[in-house]
Amino acid sequence: MTTTILLDTNAYLRLAKRIQPLLGKKFNPAKDYVLVVLREVTDEVHRQPRLVRQYPWFDGPKYTEERKAHGVRLSKDQKNEAIENKKFLLSHVARNARAYLLHGRDPPGDTDCYVLGVAMACSWCVATDDENMHALGKDFEVKCLYAFDVLHKLLSADMIDKAKVIEIYEALEINGDLTARWTDAKDKLFKKIFGPGRAKHSD
After folding, report:
1. Residue 74's pLDDT is what?
2. Which helix (H) or strand (E) holds 42?
3. What is the reported pTM?
4. How far apart are CA 64 and CA 201, in angstroms?
């Protein structure tokens, strides 16, 4: 049985440039993981000029073609259920806004809730580095992974090598995008690659 992992915007942006191909290819025969992304992720990036400037590769031909070739295709019933789930999740976030504003974080927005809504409708996992999406997913029993969990699964399945992991970590550090979670993963999941020690991170 295939285990579908739905990448949200931040997870896709952290992995897609340096891991090609990324989408649509099954890995780990025991689990048959497959990574997919919604068209709404592309739309979200295009709505934010800052992201377009920060990730100029995003609209490159090979990335655009890969997203189109391996985009999510929902049945009418799944799409309707996902839309209703999104509305419910947004309402839940609005009713509990204070809980999602801790530590200066932004509450889950329209695309975040749609990603989780699709996962609920399809019984999929979500990969996100957004702590509030993890919290919201936990409240509604949606399994959420971090992008580094996906990276580790790809490494374990020999879809990438150790050099690729190092390359991604170096890029995150140069871009000031190495979060506390990614640093912890460097010291735990990837300890055999990096050895002991702490890396600089941003919150």
Report:
1. 95
2. helix 39-47
3. 0.92
4. 30
Helices 147-156, 180-187: crossing angle, 10 deg rounding: 30
How many Å apart are CA 22 and CA 70, to the nearest integer?
10
Residues in the chain, total: 203
- Neighbour order of strands in the sheet with 33-37: 33-37, 3-7, 125-127, 144-145
pLDDT (tens digit, 9 = 90+) per residue, 171-180?
999 989 999 9
> Residue 69: what are its φ and ψ, rounded to 5°?
-70, -30
**Using H for helix, E for strand and C for coil, what is the string for 46-102?**
HHCHHHHHHCHHHHCHHHHHHHHHCECCCCHHHHHHHHHHHHHHHHHHHHCHHHHCH
Measured distance CA(68)–CA(6) in Å, rounded = 15
**Burial class (CB within 10 angstroms; exposed 0-12, middle 13-18, buried 19+) of 201:** middle
**pLDDT tens track for 136-166:** 999 999 999 999 999 999 999 999 999 999 9
Q: Which residues contact 55 (CB under 8 A, 6 or more apart)?
A: 13, 17, 45
